UniProtKB/TrEMBL annotation:
Membrane topology of this protein: Peripheral membrane protein
PANTHER family: TEICHOIC ACID GLYCEROL-PHOSPHATE PRIMASE (PTHR37316), TEICHOIC ACID GLYCEROL-PHOSPHATE TRANSFERASE (PTHR37316:SF3)
Keyword Plastid: no
Protein name, UniProt field: CDP-glycerol:glycerophosphate glycerophosphotransferase
Family stated for the protein in its record: Belongs to the CDP-glycerol glycerophosphotransferase family.
Gene3D superfamilies: 3.40.50.11820, 3.40.50.12580, Spore Coat Polysaccharide Biosynthesis Protein SpsA, Chain A
Cellular localization per UniProt: Cell membrane
Pfam families xref list: Glycos_transf_2, Glyphos_transf
Domain Glycosyltransferase 2-like: 5-111
Keyword field: Cell membrane, Membrane, Teichoic acid biosynthesis, Transferase
GO molecular function, one term: CDP-glycerol glycerophosphotransferase activity
GO-annotated biological processes: teichoic acid biosynthetic process
Top-level taxonomic group: Bacteria
Organism: Streptomyces bauhiniae
Length: 743
């Protein structure tokens, strides 16, 4: 029997679940088990639980066949628990370092109480950590353990289950279980606390209570489900009726009930407007039915609300709430005026266009800050033309890039009247970065965020931990992300990252990256055409070198001597270089350029064609590795400054331990790998296979079609993924050239 059983229910928490489980498994107290309950979650939560269970035998996973809600999911976990004590942890929260050892130590010191109450802190998305406002109630004062009657003020703690450890035999003896519905913690918490003869306290923060910016909190949900609070307090008073020895708690629990009803009634964003009168009537009926004899109402404004409930004076209550709403409306109008003045700065013309109807058959595309027609938006554009030719497709392009727009693509110059008109009236806005802060998200518009890579380096809110890498305003960033309706992903890893670092109310579409469809579907002729456009001779090996940008460097310092590399590898090798730097003007470099031994492809409009043409990729930390891996061709990581990059920029995994192929940390080692052929050997292939299965998970060649059918055509059921073992990819250059050689 383990000392502690932690019950962790999971539902739509894939972005936070790994952090929760890591906080448990990294504890320095080993005597525990985890009962993880997949509440029929529609995302990858269940798969994440299974992956952790495979790695650690202390994790036991239950997969429910239907979604039953938080309370009943906890019940399912309790049935499988074997520990001496039960702990509950919500799957988006985390334990603090050393929490379990502190809990176990306090339980022993207090003589194994029935309940141990410990502290928590609120952890906000913007980095703030706020302590529990009633933490002073947990300070040790008196005996090691006690009944609630000696510390009745503990009822004023937040009525939550996850800041307590419960002795399992006490839970079984009292027949405690969680009811269905909202506010399921109330019956459990109140009934257990008033029943326990021995309660102990731990004045230590053991749980970080995540305050999610979007979702995950019923208190921010407008719904009739808030009526569940009546059933929950009905259960509490039924419990009191069944236990007359606890009758002393009727008065305190009546006040908790009334305060809770008033909170639901008066807080904005909970009850639908047309349900308020009904809620008040039910609250008033409960008040009169359960009013204890001799109960004294509190004083002040709260006492007036009690009196209105007792008299059933909804009109009086509504008038009082109306006065509050009036004050809120005044503040909103002030904000609207301010926002209007800001919008006026965008131009009267844009404002006039925003008043016109949306064009249901107009889509505006942009990529890389409107610098090119490329990436995922370009692939979606092409598929949209095939499946929905009635949709007019327009590209936003910077003035200095219009000469690079491919023939046949309609475009508007950023900042022009045509641009503001299309931006205001297009039904669909597609981008692989964010549109400018000045863009207004209209009701009915659909913003599709395609992203432009799988993240190795930290992104979004995670960049706050690495201030050397960015100077962005995170508040402004999230305001831009609030406009998203859909966010694309090419693997579950990316989905969980995006949902955590961009905590907004979009829908994640696990479609694969549309730009990678060509890497799956390209033919031998496509490969030959790509190589011919780069003037690559049939017998040459072409290595594509794509180093990443380092934001923390004022300028780029090349870490690879390309001239020496070209000389060492010999005349049968061509280096295609795509990067953010200038690599010299010596006569030797010019000779290598003229001979085709070094080809600058930094300005090539379609990186996917470079991938098709290359025999192998050499990169450091660029997201190119994830896309190129779709081809199942060799990837060589040249990581001469990994320790610096990972420390300063921050990364999501250790590339040295999970590479897509061979790794070199010096130029000499890189040359050895390339000359020996080890970069394309069996060990490199094993690394590549593992990498592809994780990071090329959804790239099966039909991503663009999935996106168009879901976003533009409104089809709810997405095309099924082609099983990984059945997928194809473009032929390698030698394979593409074989038919010509045989001919």
């Amino acid at each position: 029997m383990p000392k502690l059983s932690l019950v962790v229910p999971a539902y739509k928490v894939q972005a936070y679940l790994a952090e929760c489980l890591d906080s448990i498994l990294e504890q320095d107290f080993p005597d525990f088990e985890v009962i993880a309950v997949d509440d029929c979650s529609p995302d990858a939560s269940g798969a994440i639980l299974d992956e952790y269970a495979e790695r650690d035998p202390r994790i036991h996973v239950i997969h429910l066949t239907e979604n039953v809600g938080l309370g009943r999911a906890r019940n399912a976990g309790m049935e499988k628990a074997t520990g001496e004590y039960l702990l509950f942890l919500d799957s988006d929260d985390t334990l603090t370092e050393g929490a379990l050892r502190a809990i176990a130590g306090r339980l022993e010191a207090a003589g194994d109480p029935e309940i141990l109450v410990y502290d928590y802190a609120r952890s906000y998305w913007d980095g703030r950590i706020l302590p529990n406002q009633r933490a002073a109630l947990l300070r040790p004062d008196g005996p090691e353990s006690f009944p609630l009657s000696e510390r009745p003020e503990l009822l004023d703690l937040l009525q939550i289950v996850w800041n307590k450890a419960y002795r399992r035999d006490f839970v079984l003896r009292m027949g405690l279980s969680f009811p269905p519905g909202y506010y399921e913690d109330a019956p459990w918490t109140f009934c257990s606390m008033i029943s326990a003869e021995h309660i102990a306290l731990l004045d230590r923060v053991c749980v970080m209570y995540r305050q999610r910016r979007e979702g995950g909190n019923i208190l921010k949900t407008v719904s009739r489900k808030h009526f569940d609070v009546f059933d929950q307090y009905g259960r509490i008073f039924d419990f009191l009726d069944a236990h007359p020895e606890l009758d002393q708690w009727r008065g305190p629990l009546f006040r908790k009930m009334t305060d809770h009803y008033l909170t639901v009634l008066t807080k904005p964003g909970r009850l639908p407007q047309n349900a308020r009168a009904e809620f008040f009537r039910r609250a008033s009926a409960d008040y009169r039915a359960r009013l204890p004899k001799g109960f004294a109402r509190p004083g002040g404004n709260l006492g007036h609300k009690y009196a209105m409930l007792e008299r059933g004076s909804y009109l009086t209550m509504a008038s009082a709430l109306g006065a509050v709403k009036l004050r809120q409306a005044v503040r909103r109008r002030a904000r609207t005026t301010l926002n209007q003045s800001k919008r006026n700065a965008m131009g009267v013309f844009y404002q006039s266009q925003l008043k016109l109807p949306l064009d249901e058959n107009l889509a505006l595309f942009s990529a890389y800050w409107s610098r090119s027609v490329s990436c995922n938006p370009a692939a979606i554009d092409a598929e949209l033309a095939r499946l929905a030719p009635q949709v007019r497709r327009v590209w936003a392009v910077q003035a200095d890039a219009v000469d690079r727009v491919p023939a046949g693509h309609e475009f508007v110059r950023v900042g022009s009247r045509e641009y503001w008109s299309v931006l205001a009236r297009a039904k669909y806005l597609v981008n692989n970065v964010n549109f400018a802060d000045s863009v207004v998200k209209r009701e009915g518009q659909i913003h599709l965020q395609t992203h432009h890579g799988t993240p190795l380096k930290t992104m979004g809110l995670d960049q706050r931990k690495y201030p050397a890498s960015t100077s962005m305003s995170f508040d402004k960033l999230l305001e831009r992300c609030d406009r998203w309706d859909y966010s694309l992903s090419s693997n579950r890893f990316s989905t969980t990252v995006w949902e955590r670092v961009y905590p907004c109310s979009y829908v994640s579409l696990e479609t694969g990256y549309p730009r990678n469809d060509i890497l799956v579907n390209a033919t031998a002729e496509d490969v030959r055409r790509a190589r011919a456009s780069l003037e690559l001779a049939d017998g040459t090996r072409a290595f594509l070198y794509m180093p990443t940008h380092r934001e923390y460097q004022a300028g780029f310092t090349p870490s690879l001597d390309l001239v020496r590399l070209a000389d060492e590898l010999g005349p049968d090798v061509t280096l295609m270089v795509r990067g953010h730097y200038f690599y010299g003007n010596s006569s030797h470099v010019e000779e290598l350029r003229r001979s085709g031994r070094i080809v600058d492809v930094s300005g090539h409009p379609r990186v996917e064609e470079l991938y098709l043409a290359a025999d192998a990729l050499i990169t450091d930390y660029s997201s190119a590795m994830f896309d190129y891996a779709v081809l199942d061709r060799p990837v060589i990581i040249y990581a001469s400054d990994w320790d610096i990059y990972s420390a300063v920029r921050g990364t999501y995994f250790n590339l040295m331990e999970e590479p897509p192929g061979a790794v070199a940390t010096s130029q000499a080692e890189l040359i050895r790998l390339l000359e020996s052929g080890e970069y394309d050997g069996p060990e490199a292939a094993r690394y590549r296979d593992r990498f592809r299965r994780r990071y090329c998970e959804f790239d099966d060649g039909r991503a663009a079609e999935r996106v168009v059918r879901r976003v533009f055509l409104g089809e709810e059921d997405m095309l099924p993924l082609v099983p990984f073992a059945d997928r194809h990819h473009a032929p390698t250059p030698p394979q593409a050239l074989e038919p010509l050689e045989r001919a």
